[in-house]
Amino acid sequence: MPRELSMLCTLVLAFAIVAHAKEFHKESAKRPNSPERKPIVVVPGVLGSRLQAKLNLTESPGLFCSRVRDWFDIWLNIDELVPLFINCWVYDISMHYTDGNRKPTNQKGVKTRTMDFGGTKAFEYLDSDPYAPGSPYFNKFVDYLVGLGYNIRDDLKGAPYDWRLSPSLEDTFLSNLTKLIEDNYYQHFNRKVVIIGHSMGNMFVYYYLKRQPQAWKDKFVDSFISINSPYLGSVKAIKSVLSGETEGHDVVLPRLKMRTASRTWPSSFFLLPRPSLWPKNKSVVVSTFKQNFTVHDYKAIFETIKCEKCWERFEYYGAELGDLSAPNVEVHCVYSSQLPTAEVLLYDSELFPDASPVLKTGSGDGTVNTFSSSYCLNWRKEQSQPVHDVLLPGNNHVDILSNITLLEYIRGVVVTESPKLTDLHHDLL
User: Fold this and answer.
1) Tens digit of pLDDT for each residue in 216-258?
2) Cα gap 333→390, rounded to integer Å
3) Phi and psi angles of residue 292, each rounded to the nearest 5 degrees, phi first
4) CA 144 to chain CA centroid, nearest Å
5) Cβ–Cβ under 8 Å, residues 201 and 141
6) Would you call 365 a catalytic residue per the annotation?
């Protein structure tokens, strides 16, 4: 067969395969069990992606610590947090700063990596043991989407990342996120992508969208579903830096050891309440009964607790989201209320900051204050794209991900044959 004829036959065959695939997709979308779906990318929150580490240390940081170790789970791994090994864990997961360099690195001899970029394994369960305390995370959320016909790593993709970092330090992740969104778009017949974030993941998505050309967003992004995001920061982040935060798992997560590690993470300072946007009538966030500290007093707080470099790190990472102006994509602003959520940390002056504080609370999801997670509603007056008000009272920060009202609302967004849902704010009051 002449070469030209052979090439022509190959091209004809290729076009026939593509045409058949398109027809198959159209037919399958009509089947009852396979409705037409918008592709999805999910971005989890702080502490919400499994991390692995590999060690090649010149010196052991402790008596029971390994110097050389192949890849192992460092977060979440309850076995690493027992008393004999906790100092090893603190060293391995902490970050190191070179003087004058705002970009931290892992400790010398430690390599880290996230798992399963493009999939959901890294954030369905945070521990390899699904029954370990604190392990279940996005599992029920993912199961629900799979029940709608979604396929993991196909039209349902995940974007785990190193949650110790702030967005400006995650160039590789942000670049990979672009490819993930574009691949999802092209692999599914140029269908726009729905980006779903939870907690700090929304702030990464926001940071990312603000840096994308409008033409790119118009082409690739269907909408952004923002779930319980600490846009203005969270008082719980202050507690993490001052006294340590265990998310209610004090038995398995030693609070002061967590504090030692978290003071080295840029994300800890990225999540502190934003002085420029925090409500003026709630400016006092720490009280030792002898002295009150406001969101404008971080430098004084850090000096009082002798936290070296903390003020410098807040200056580096605390204002990365800028003025929080509108991202100019359609937004579903999901937030909670009516659960006691820290607004002021009350300390005994003699035990400050090592003791766990008493919390003066207000409305929120138990982690993020309602006025912080609902800030995305402000974009309504700034952008032409719709911003939907989705209030789900009484849902805590993580359990909201398995709330059937939220899941059904998301179905209305992502499944094109579903009835369209209106804002839920008034329906649920």
Assistant:
1) 999 999 999 999 999 999 999 999 999 998 776 666 678 899 9
2) 6
3) -100, 145
4) 20
5) no
6) yes
DSSP letters, 151-163, are -BTTTEEE----T
Question: What is the residue type of 202?
Answer: N
Whole-number Cα distances in Å, 299 to 59, 173, 279, 308: 34, 31, 19, 11
Rounded distance, CA 328 to CA 210, Å? 8
Q: Provide the CATH number for the domain formed by 40-48+140-414 in this structure.
A: 3.40.50.1820
Contact indicator for 285, 238 with CB cutoff of 8 Å: yes
pLDDT higher than 90, residue 76: yes
Question: How many whole angstroms separate alpha carbon 102 and alpha carbon 158?
Answer: 28
Would you state the structure tokens that stand for residue 324, as one six-digit string? Answer: 């929080």
**DSSP class of 377:** G
Question: pLDDT by residue (tens digit) across 16-49?
Answer: 444 444 444 444 443 334 568 999 999 999 999 9
**Residue from 198, 332, 388, 397 carrying the catalytic annotation:** 397
The whole-angstrom separation of Cα 77 and Cα 127 is 6
Q: Give the C-alpha distances (Å, rounded to integers) separating 206 from 64, 226, 420, 427.
A: 42, 9, 25, 27
Q: Catalytic residue, from 94, 166, 199, 229: name it.
A: 199
Task: For residue 83, give the 3-state DSSP assignment.
Answer: coil
- 397 catalytically annotated: yes
**Tokens matching residue 286:** 């720490």
| The overall pTM is greater than 0.70 | yes
Residue 372: Cβ within 10 Å count: 25
Question: What HEC string does 263-313 produce?
Answer: CCCHHHHHCCCCCCCCCHHHCEEEECCCCEEECCCHHHHHHHCCCCCHHHH
3-state secondary structure (DSSP) of residue 210: helix
Cα–Cα distances in angstroms (integers) from residue 167 to residues 106, 170, 209, 231, in the given order: 17, 5, 12, 13
Domain definitions of the chain by residue range: 40-48+140-414
**Residue 48: how many other CB atoms lie within 10 Å:** 22
Using alpha carbons, select from 428, 286, 275 the residue that is nearest to residue 344.
286
- Joined tokens for residue 60: 């052991």
List 365, 373, 374, 388, catalytic entry: 365
| Distance separating alpha carbons of residues 204 and 207, to the nearest angstrom | 5
* Beta bridge partner(s), residue 96: 105
Q: Which residue would you say has higher pLDDT here, 217 or 100?
A: 217
Amino acid in position 134: G
Is 171 an active-site residue?
no
Instruction: Find the distance separating the first CA and the last CA of the chain, reported in whole Å.
Output: 74
